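Margin note: ligand = flavin-adenine dinucleotide.
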Amino acid sequence: MKKKWSGLALAAGALAFSATAFAAPPSAEMLANACAGCHGTNGGSAGDTMPSLASQSASSIVESMLKFKSGERSSTIMGRLAKGYSDEQIKAMGGFFAKQKLHVTQQVTDKAKVAQATKIQEKSCGRCHLDEGKDGKDDTPVMASQWLPYLQIQMDLYTSGHRKMPDKMAEKVKELSKQDLDALMHFYAAQK
Amino acid sequence: MTLDRRSFLKLLAAGAGAAGLPMIGRAAEIMPKKGRRVIVIGGGYGGSIAAKYIRMMDKTIEVVLIEKNKQYISCPFSNHLLAGYIKDLSSLTIGYDKLAANHGITMVYDEVTAIDPAAKTVTTKGGNIAYDKLVVSPGVDFRTEEIEGYDAKTEELMPHAWKAGPQTILLRKQLEAMQDGGTVVLTAPLAPFRCPPGPYERVAMVADYLKKNKPKSKVILLDANPDIVSKPTLFRKGWEMYPGLIEYRKAAKVTAVNNQAMSVMVEGIDEVKGDVISVVPAQRATALMAGAGLIGEDKKWCPVNATTFESTLHKDVYVVGDSSSAGAMPKSGYSANSEAKVCATNIVAAMNGKEQVEMSGINTCYSFLSHDEAISVAGIYTVKEGKIVGVPNSGGISKLDYSDAKLEAKYANSWLKNILTEMST
Ligand SMILES: Cc1cc2nc3c(=O)[nH]c(=O)nc-3n(C[C@H](O)[C@H](O)[C@H](O)COP(=O)(O)OP(=O)(O)OC[C@H]3O[C@@H](n4cnc5c(N)ncnc54)[C@H](O)[C@@H]3O)c2cc1C
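Resulting structure:
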């Protein structure tokens, strides 16, 4: 019995090894699936402090990843992870997540705050965060339907100086109170 | 479709009756194979994901997931019960109904007793099932025979709690019953073992319980390894939160236990007594894997092709999770999840006559030091010269000054939520 297996083992080993030699480079799906253990299947997050990547704009994912990699955007863990990928691979993952269906989160937002923020958002944020946060361009992320706790964490990191804000965004944010900013986070989280 | 053992046996009886075959001698074939079929054994961190992703990638392949329990209890975060951060294991318990319904996976709740790689069948208590490809992710068994005096009673007296469930609850109850001023003894086996940071997280969880409830007590960690296996600098720093409560002894392998005396023997010479003792024996791939001839020369783990996770010993059998020898990837839930996806991709490719795809994997382990502080280790993996290796200059551990620990605890909670949701929906 033992002998028979070891013969088989050799044959199977040889077979498996030759298969490896012809493996194609990791596909976008292969790369991106590994992220889903944290960000959820196809980038749809079920955990409210973890950002959804599903239907995020490809360019914003790529920009974030490159900034994580260089350290320009501070992070707890993404910097360590982003360093494991080439720029090409990052582009492939950005494309993959951008194609996934918008992950509409079931979350409770404060209606009064959403209403309060509608005007402020038009005046202070809408220039860059287009279409009420549903559209992302260049390095500006889609924020519509993003998890509220995640957005609140990010706003805290910005205002406490732990995450570098784009200069023009900083000018607008400076003018606003803590309450206004909190209302804005409710506003974006509530967009579907 | 869901089959439990009872309907299984009915089906079996009906089948045998129709064919007029005697049921004695060999197990009957149940669920005759019609199209292409993959069987997955084990619905844990690896198996549930392999089953799901194969169906996500190709709906024409039938997937049968065989799992012995109707509910799965997560080891990740089970140490939290010891600290009292959770009151029971309900938040760590998942079922398979949604997963099966969402992806059209056939669930079979039964124990696999044998795999026949030549005949391409697996034997369950209910009968035989044929496969085209097989994925196995059954977790670990304990090498209890390496500890002198270890018997069936030891597991009750000194629970390992290294498989979450009744063992974890038992250990918690023993902590609750202990008098203040008592000694808790924890042990860590020689690496490689399931969850390298696990023992060091556990000592902090127990210390937090003692600090709040029994401050005159202490916890001793007897570590068989020459030093802390994972995130050593970070754990040492974290343990400073519990001054006087933690005693760490390296190169202190438990070689014997004494049930009557409630003591363990370190390196055959030094007897350590405890009021509460948790002995975590060294581990290996499960007996099922040994029986199927899937274990390699080290007599412990299952060697696999680094790109596909196909066994190098048997064709069409794939091993992921703790049982596999996955090169640089540690034995963790995140690794099992990532490996299962790599394996699923390459099984679907092979079954459709397509080119294999090079693996790309991730591991992350969050460890808690207190209720709201956590640290992490991360790695990205690729294949080089047939071996799984870490991508150079990437990954690593949290900031040494603990400045991110509060934030990481928040992210860690979502990690658990997301990975359990991946497994159960
Ligand atoms: C205390 C502790 C803390 C941990 N914390 C973390 C953490 O924070 N992060 C992390 O990534 N990892 C963690 N881990 C590690 C993680 O639990 C394992 O690495 C992971 O469960 C391995 O997945 P697996 O699929 O190999 O095995 P498992 O998840 O154990 O799944 C095996 C499944 O197979 C079933 N099975 C086995 N044999 C048979 C059979 N013959 N027939 C039918 N069914 C069978 C079992 O019932 C089980 O459901 C921790 C482990 C421990 C002990």
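The interface with chain B takes residues 5, 8-9, 11-13, 15-17, 19-20, 22-27, 29-31, 33-41, 45-50, 76-77, 80-81, 83-85, 89, 149, 153 of chain A (CB under 8 Å).
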